[in-house]
Design goal:
Number of domains: 1
Helix content: 10-25%
Pfam families: DUF3108 (PF11306)
Number of strands: 16
Shape: globular
Protein name: DUF3108 domain-containing protein
Structural class: mainly beta
Distance between the termini: 37 Å
Strand content: over 45%
Largest sheet: 13 strands, antiparallel
């Protein structure tokens, strides 16, 4: 159970050099700490960097810390390259990797073809081409799209079409309330988005800060058995 929890925890860790008012976001770096039973379990660093007038690189790296790091050497990363097309985020490619030592535990890569509305999916050694919608997005860059939707419309889209492994899935988020969250010395007003999976094995709550362009400052995961783990924003620059 311990190994399963840490792998799941790290996998869930959720978001410019070209000055322009049209940029959806400035370059930023956000660091999160994950907690289980009050103990620090992992650290995740998320970075967004503009690479051209219309392109961005979005990355995340996560690894165990504290007592967990004594037993585990997991390294988890996400990386997407995306452009702004017709004022919308359009992903070019996305890669997810989970390594334990030198062993590749999980690997998923998507290359998107928006002319044919298809995506080439690779899950470890398995490859497949899937049909996608014009608004499809990977599950990592999805956070940026939610941030934009909240800033522009005050609410998430009715549903998001998310590429995951060899499938195109529908994810739904609903506003479930507001809450003040203490981050460092700040008390931040947040809007809470709730996502309940169809299998109801886990419910996820995103606490989005309007002050920081609706960046998640807390993410809470509640398992079906009632157990909880969460991550908190600990450092932020750029927003």
């Amino acid at each position: 159970m311990h190994k399963i929890f840490i792998s799941t925890l790290l996998s869930l860790i959720a978001s410019t050099g070209f000055a322009t008012d049209k940029a959806p976001f400035p370059d930023f770096t956000a660091e999160y700490t994950l907690y289980k039973a009050g103990l620090r379990a992992a650290v995740s660093v998320v970075t967004l960097k503009r690479t051209s007038p219309t392109s961005w690189s979005y990355k995340r790296k996560a690894s165990p810390v504290g007592i967990v790091s004594v037993f585990r050497s997991d390294k988890i990363s996400d990386h997407s390259d995306w452009s702004l097309v017709n004022n919308a985020i359009q992903v070019k490619q996305y890669t997810f990797s989970h390594k334990r030592g030198s062993k590749q535990k999980k690997y998923n890569r998507f290359v998107y073809n928006w002319k044919t509305n298809t995506a080439s999916s690779q899950v470890k050694d398995s490859k497949k081409t899937i049909k996608i919608t014009p608004v499809a997005i990977d599950k990592f860059t999805l956070q940026l799209r939610i941030m934009r939707d909240m800033a522009q419309n005050g609410k998430p889209a009715a549903q998001y079409f998310v590429t995951d492994k060899h499938k195109l899935k529908s994810w739904v988020f609903t506003i479930s309330g507001k809450e003040k969250i203490k981050i460092g010395k700040e008390m931040l007003d947040t809007v809470i988005l709730k996502r309940t999976r169809k299998n109801k094995k886990r419910t996820t709550y995103l606490y989005l800060s309007k002050k920081y362009r609706y960046l998640p400052v807390k993410v809470l995961h509640v398992e079906k058995n009632g157990s909880k783990f969460y991550m908190l924003l600990t450092k932020l620059s750029g927003l």
